[in-house]
């Protein structure tokens, strides 16, 4: 199964970009961005339920729930904000610019999170190569956005 991790991550990146267009189109066609976001959320729930027989689904005990840090409960809200931003702005910015901006922001943020080991991530120092990689991502987005 480990050999599938990278191809699945690549597929997820492709789907993330394609979904921006699909979601923006849904919003534009219905002229209802919140409705489009709710449809996206409903479709997400269906995918999760379809995966449940393979990945498991259960309700943890109160002790487990109490161990979750306060920020651990905010992921869904962050995902909702991302989907709403995608619905509202991906169509205006274009796929390359929107995806470039969001992926680059994610890379830079992830390097900072890794460097400090924040939010439960393993600590990986932000050495010169990682910093250069972030700089190249920023330069790449600038080129994609400009031309």
Automatic annotation (TrEMBL):
Key words, A-Z: Membrane, Transmembrane, Transmembrane helix
Domain of life of the native organism: Bacteria
Bilayer-crossing regions: 36-58, 70-89, 95-116, 128-145
GO cellular component entries: plasma membrane
Pfam family for this entry, one: DMT_YdcZ
InterPro entries recorded: YdcZ
Protein name, per record: DMT family transporter
UniProt source species: Methylobacterium oryzihabitans
């Amino acid at each position: 199964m480990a050999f599938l991790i990278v191809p699945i991550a690549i597929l997820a990146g492709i789907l993330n970009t394609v979904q921006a267009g699909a979601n923006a189109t849904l919003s534009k066609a219905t002229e209802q961005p919140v409705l489009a976001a709710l449809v996206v959320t409903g479709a997400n729930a269906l995918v999760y339920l379809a995966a449940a027989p393979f990945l498991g689904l259960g309700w943890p005990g109160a002790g487990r729930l109490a161990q979750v840090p306060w920020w651990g409960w905010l992921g869904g809200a962050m995902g909702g904000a991302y989907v709403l931003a995608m619905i509202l702005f991906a169509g205006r910015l274009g796929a390359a610019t929107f995806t470039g901006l969001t992926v680059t922001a994610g890379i830079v943020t992830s390097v900072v999170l890794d460097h400090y080991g924040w939010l439960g991530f393993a600590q990986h120092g932000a050495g010169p190569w990682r910093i250069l990689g972030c700089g190249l991502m920023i330069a790449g987005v600038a080129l994609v956005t400009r031309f």
